[in-house]
Design a protein that fits this description.
With 178 residues, the protein is an alpha+beta fold. The strands form three sheets. The protein has a six-stranded mixed sheet with strand order 1-2-11-12-4-3. A five-stranded mixed sheet has the order 7-8-6-5-13. A hairpin with a 2-residue loop joins strand 9 and strand 10. Helix 1 packs across helix 3.
Length: 178
């Protein structure tokens, strides 16, 4: 599966069967070093609800953008946080870090780890002026679809991290769905 098929709008029944969420699939054993770096950072999470980990914006951050019927989510991490954490995982990840695209953020330079998009009319809900978080579901064993992700989470074979999100540079204009 490519990145275009590893993002969904759906529910995680064990969390809230009424809520539609933006869900990204992460494979802990991925060949993509950036995806493996994202999984490493999930260990920095702080547990909120049982089994749900919240990440600080410098750990992982998500940004929504909308162009026409395409909703894009970009997940990035502060470059210094990544450099510190990947240092223990060998030259392969350290070398890959230098090749990642970079974006400026309020807290300094971020490295882009994931960029996924889908065609949808879904507009993330807002609370206090911020869009709803992105859910990252990490597991081992290759990309899977939403029903399998929910099953893996319910059986304890996957975890969910909640990543705060913002709107991209175009802000409100990008959220308008025509």
């Amino acid at each position: 599966m490519d990145d275009l098929t590893r993002m969904w709008i759906g529910t995680i029944p064990a969390l809230d069967p009424e809520s539609r969420e933006v869900i990204l699939d992460l494979d802990q054993a991925s060949a993509d070093p950036a995806e493996r770096m994202a999984c490493l950072l999930l260990n920095r999470g702080h547990e909120g609800q049982e089994g749900v980990f919240y990440l600080l914006p410098d750990d992982l951050a998500a940004r929504y953008e909308r162009t026409g019927d395409r909703l894009t989510v970009t997940v990035s991490a502060h470059r210094d946080v990544l450099a510190h954490d990947v240092g223990a995982y060998g030259e392969g990840l350290r070398d890959a870090l230098d090749g990642l695209p970079r974006v400026a953020s309020d807290g300094g330079e971020h490295a882009v780890l994931l960029r996924r998009e889908i065609s949808t009319d879904f507009v993330p809900a807002e609370q206090d002026g911020e869009p709803q978080p992105v859910l990252l579901v990490d597991h081992a064993g290759g990309p899977v679809g939403p029903p399998e992700l929910a099953r893996l989470f319910e059986s304890g074979e996957a975890s969910i991290a909640v990543v705060n999100a913002t709107w991209g540079p175009q802000g409100a204009a990008r959220r308008t769905v025509s």
